[in-house]
Write a structure and sequence with these properties.
The chain has a single domain, classed as Ribonuclease P/MRP, subunit p29 (SH3 type barrels). Helices cover 6% and strands 44% of the residues.
Length: 88
């Protein structure tokens, strides 16, 4: 079960994500479902299509099971398989 404390250890694909803060004001507020992930990018399926957003340049809000968690993107910058196997 995903919680605010362990979200970094879980799969992000399928979660709703929103960029809540970024140095790049053009991406602030973009939201959609995470459809893919690389070491440095999240791919969001938005109303305008699939958009690639660098993980590190943003603060992210993830929605899951009627809960939300805000995560600093620099904590996500690992390959998904490395992050999933990491210890908190």
């Amino acid at each position: 079960m995903i919680t605010q404390e362990n979200i970094l250890l879980h799969e992000l694909i399928g979660l709703e994500a929103t960029v809540v803060q970024s140095n790049n004001k053009q991406i602030t507020g973009i939201s959609g479902k995470v459809v893919d992930e690389t070491k440095s990018m999240l791919f969001l399926n938005t109303t305008k299509g699939i958009i690639k957003i660098p993980k590190e340049s943003a603060k992210w809000k993830f929605s899951f099971d009627k809960n939300e968690s805000i995560v600093n993107g620099s904590l996500l910058t690992k390959r998904p398989q490395e992050r999933l196997g990491a210890k908190p």
